[in-house]
Amino acid sequence: MGKPQTVDAYIEGFEGAGRELLERVRALALEAVPTAGEAIKWGHPAWVHPSGTILFMVSGHARHANVVFTPSTREAFATDLTGFATGKGSVRLPYGGPVPGDLLRRMIAFRVREHEDDGVLWM
Predict the structure, then answer these.
(1) Whole-angstrom Cα distance, residue 116 to residue 58?
(2) pLDDT in tens, the chain (123 residues)
(3) How far apart are CA 38 and CA 94, in angstroms?
(4) What torsion do the CA atoms of 110, 92, 102, 22 make, to the nearest 10 degrees?
(5) Tally of domains within the chain
(6) Do 114 and 70 form a contact (C-beta atoms < 8 A)?
(7) Phi and psi angles of residue 41, each rounded to the nearest 5 degrees, phi first
């Protein structure tokens, strides 16, 4: 089987808690930034600003999903992210755990503002 061509197909490749978490992140993204388009970038779902710049991505793994922002977005929320495993721009969300909806909404809003107001592009 090849790489998924749509976000629907990507999410359908997961079961149980993994699919549930990916669906919740997708719903939150659609609510938080309804003008963004969905696309598959590097094999993973991405939300793309109307200008064509990637705003953030999500990737599913065996036991967790990563929501990936720019490093500047992740750094701006470092204090709020204590208790989460993080990477350069990523936040790890374990399957079966709570989705920090309010925090992710704030991070998405920050990411949109940093792109629109400051011209911050994708990595």
Answers:
(1) 21
(2) 567 899 999 999 999 999 999 999 999 999 999 999 999 999 999 999 999 999 999 999 999 999 999 999 999 999 999 999 999 999 999 999 889 999 999 999 999 999 999 999 997
(3) 23
(4) 100
(5) 1
(6) yes
(7) -125, 125
Other Cβ atoms less than 10 A from the Cβ of 74: the count is: 21
Q: How would you classify the pairing of strands 90-94 and 64-68?
A: antiparallel
* Tokens, residue 63: 């036991």
* Residue 123 domain-assigned (yes or no): no
Q: Supply 45's token pair.
A: 């779902």
CATH value at residue 105 = 3.90.1150.200
Quote the CA–CA distance of 37 and 48 in Å, as a whole number.
5
Strand pairing report for 90-94 and 44-48: unpaired
Q: Hey, what are 88's tokens?
A: 């350069």
Answer for the pair 66, 93: CB distance below 8 angstroms, yes or no.
yes
Residue-number span of the structural domain to which 23 is assigned: 7-118
